[in-house]
Amino acid sequence: MLGSTAVLGVFALALVGIVVLLARFVLAIGPGREFLAAFPGEYPLPASAPVGLPAWLNWSHFLNSFFLLLIIRTGWQVRREKRPAAFWSPRSNKKRRISLALWFHQALDILWIANGVVFVVLLFVTGQWMRIVPTSWDVFPNALSAALQYASLDWPTENGWVNYNSLQQLSYFAITFVAAPLAIVSGVRLSGVWPKNAEKLNRLYPVEWARKVHFPTMLFFVAFIIVHVALVLATGALRNLNHMYAARGSVDPEAFSSDPTGLLIFAASLVVMAAAWVAARPAVLVPIARLFGEVKQR
Fold first, then answer.
1. CA 126 – CA 110 distance, rounded (Å)
2. Among candidates 176, 168, 160, which has minimal Cα distance to 142?
3. pLDDT digits (tens, 9 = 90+) for 139-185
4. Which of 196, 235, 271, 296 has the most CB atoms around it within 10 Å of its CB?
């Protein structure tokens, strides 16, 4: 097992090295330099696009991270759990019984969806949608340019307070308007709110389809979070955290690059998340679950 892991690690490092060398070669030759000059990695936003990140977006970002962390935790727990410590039943139908972990997972889903709905509504009301929804076909060659720059390790330098690079924009669009809806639609099919006796509806949307979508979507979220956090910290951590957690930024990319405010808020948010992770156990969840139904413990 250890030998196989070592071989895979060496293979992965070799593959990364080849990708870096290829990207550097492409960007060093004439056509590559011309492509980079024509498509630097981002395109100008519409003149009406807002500048900066408002406080509501910071709060929504934190809540989204908080709920997602616990949703992933409980989803994995439900997937692996063989003997649940407790079961929850609604007062109106005590014959229906689900594990406490599944109840918590679905309760978190509701809160996550509510936060997402508020986020999307405010996104379009305030014009912030122009920052994550492509408004030009130039997004695709610019995204390729940004990907080549990342792969070459000569990372694109952008000011997220003003504009994201096109690869970021496509990623944020995908996570908001593709992955999140897929997680919701597949999750609803797997949940207790789905009408079990609707034979025609169940034939049109088999539960097996939902299972095949739901877990890979969770893995996509996990991969996105890992890459997102790594790049936030590696491409100007203080400046990026000020944008994302403190609503502090400027058209000058060097501004707030040494301000610790966002870092301190980020650190506090990690403490809150860690506390919630530790607290998400039957001793804490059972009294809360009893407010909404009946709980039976083993």
1. 24
2. 168
3. 999 999 999 999 998 888 778 899 999 999 999 999 999 999 999 99
4. 235
